[in-house]
Amino acid sequence: MKYRYPQLNAEMPCKEDVLKLTPNPAVGELVQRLAEEGVETYLDRFDAQQPLCGFGLSGLCCQRCLWGPCRIGPRALRGTCGADVNLVIIGNLLRGMAAGCAAHGRHAQEVIETVIGAAEGRIDFPILGEERVLDLAR
Question: Alpha-carbon distance 33 to 37, whole Å?
Fold first, then answer.
């Protein structure tokens, strides 16, 4: 059974649909084995969450302070703090973007430190395609 989300204009597949659509048969075998062992997977947790909250799917749920979560809609046009629909949506978007940048920024920092360490000879890490690295640096 697919889950219909009008807020997203999308249908999300259930566990059985995901397993049917997965091209790698090993995935199906793994999920079957995990089920036999009683191990919960993301597919089980997703199915257990249905139906998902329309406020969250629409970006109209604010959880940025301890007064919430606030659900912005016809009954409440503003959150407890006074944030309206525009502020809640952009706040949720910016918070997600900041979290993603922070996580991936750390990866970039480690790559940069590795390249510098290899260039200075402090790390035994051969640089393959040295010309390409120099082109990027220029």
Answer: 6
What is the rounded distance in angstroms from the CA atom of residue 29 to the CA atom of residue 90? 41
Amino acid in position 103: A
Rounded CA gap, 70 and 56, in Å?
10
Residue type, 110: E
Nearest residue to 58 (alpha-carbon basis) of 98, 95, 89: 89
- CA distance linking residue 101 with residue 64, whole number of Å: 18
Location of structure tokens 């390409």? 132
Q: How far apart are CA 131 and CA 111, in angstroms?
A: 18
Tell me the residue length of the chain: 138
Which tens digits make up the pLDDT trace of 68-120? 788 888 889 998 899 998 898 888 888 888 888 888 888 888 888 888 888 88
Report the candidate in 1, 13, 7, 3 with the shortest Cα–Cα distance to residue 51. Answer: 3
- Nearest-10 Cα torsion for 54, 58, 60, 65: 90
